[in-house]
Amino acid sequence: MRLDGSSHRAWPDNSVVGRLTEPQRGDLLSLGVRREFAAGQVLLRQGEHSTHVFVLVAGHVKVLSESDSGRTILLSVRSRGDLVGELAGMDSSPRMARVVAIGAIATRVMAFAEFEAFLERHPAAGRTVNGSIAAKLRSATDKIVDFSSQEVPVRLARALLRILADHGRPAEDGVSIGIPLTQPELAAIVAASEPAVHKALAELRKHEVISVGYRSYVVRDPERLRRFAELPESP
């Protein structure tokens, strides 16, 4: 079955494609070729020398990094409208992470030269892309601070809030995080053991902050989750 990556569907407002103007968006989505990937297929491998760029038009991918000790860290999750792989072409360095499909996905994949020419044609789009890269760097910095100074329950609560901000969508009893993640994947996001994450989730469920299903998490009380994350209440 062909995935619905139609440009007529609304693009997430916080995605790169969603922030482009209609002419910019049409130009970008005309580049390269469409490629679909099955669940678990690898789009990019850490350490490889390649410079092509993906635009996600349907589905989600996870961005993973392998440490020298062999531990896998889930750096981020990207969704419809996001760019993947744009950094490698900018400095010709090896890929910094492995990118894997979460479920079936559809993409536009293009040579970096095509992407670079697009940015030259649309300087305002270049500023949008730069803003996206800056946001990724801020998120990475926040995680480093959390990993070095916070216990697992706080790290987990903050990770759920970040995912909620980027991918959340209304659910019957709250706000779904919007991405199908396993508990081992959550553990990889917060650089913790699975038992520690299981214990932290159990505490959140006990206080009716979240509900947990098969690869699904619904935040029932975002403000209480912020308190578990030791963050000030939202304005």
Taking pLDDT < 50 over at least 5 consecutive residues as the criterion, the unreliable ranges are none
In percent, how much strand structure appears in the residues? 15-25%
Number of helices: 9
Estimated helix fraction: 40-55%
What is the highest CATH level, the class of the largest domain? Mainly Beta
CATH superfamily of the largest domain: Jelly Rolls
| Annotation, overall tally of beta strands | 10
CATH architecture of the largest domain: Sandwich
CATH topology of the largest domain: Jelly Rolls
- Using the alpha-carbon principal axes, give the shape: globular
- The number of distinct structural domains comes to 2
Helix/strand-derived category reads alpha+beta
Q: N-to-C terminal Cα separation, in Å?
A: 44 Å
Largest sheet: number of strands, sense, barrel closure: 6 strands, antiparallel
Mean pLDDT: 90
Radius of gyration based on Cα positions:
18 Å
Question: How would you spell out the order of helices and strands?
Answer: HHEEEEEHEHHHEEHHEEH
InterPro entries: cNMP-bd_dom (IPR000595), cNMP-bd_dom_sf (IPR018490), Env_Response_Regulators (IPR050397), HTH_CRP (IPR012318), RmlC-like_jellyroll (IPR014710), WH_DNA-bd_sf (IPR036390)
GO cellular component, one term: cytosol
Keywords: DNA-binding, Transcription, Transcription regulation
GO molecular function, one term: DNA binding
